[in-house]
Every structure is written in C-alpha cells, then in structure tokens.
Design a protein that fits this description.
Blueprint: E1 3-11, E2 37-41, E3 57-59, H1 77-91, E4 106-110, E5 119-128
Protein name: TIGR04076 family protein
InterPro entries: CHP04076 (IPR023811)
Amino acid sequence: MQKFSRLHIAWVYPDLQEQYCADPKAGPCPCYHAGDEFIFERDGERDDFWHMGLNTLAKTSGDPDTIAGGPKMPHCSEAWDAIARYIYTGLQGGSIMKGWMNQENVMITCCSDGTRPVIFKIERIDYTD
C-alpha cells in the first residue's frame, strides 16, 4: 500500500496596513479572502506543487476565478515564496517543522507583505489509498 500526503491550507488573519500604505484604504490582500482553503495533492495523477497551486482552491467566500489558487490564477508570488518550502516538504510526507511547532505536521506562516499579511496554516494530512 502506497502512502500519500495532502495538505490543507487556510488563511487565518486579515489585513494590517492603514498606517503605512500609500493608499491607506487599499483593503486586505486582493488575492485571498478570510476562510479560503486549499488542498494540495501529489500522487500518481496530480502534482499541485509544480503549478504553484493552480486550481487547489477548495473553499472560498469570493469568486473562485479571482482567488489565488483558483482555476484561473496560481498563488500570489509573495505568498508562494513564503509557503512553498512547507508545501513541498509536506507533500513529500516530511516533518514540516518538528521541534518548532507543537505538531510536526502543522506550520503557521505568512506572506512577506508586511502591511496586509496573509497568514496560512499548513497542515500535512496523511492517508493511504
């Protein structure tokens, strides 16, 4: 029996920008909505990592066509730069942050936009086929 891993990723924190942005009313990150969830797969048929998470969106309150990770747009490059290493490790079945987080299959991380960060919870979910 072959073992596979899938990742569940959720956006868990809204914006923080009014004090520093040129447009203080720019609002939260336009690429994601609070509550967005993504499922990354890597098995014999699918490898979502190599497509920057295109079409991994599993749940949103917005229009899927305008959400990063939806069917028409891969993940934002700033977010992808921050989360890709954890996604790759998790999809290999590896420990995401053993010794750092209280569960080795979970990581809390964020994109590098300091004024409207999107904070992600990345969770490796092990299963067998």
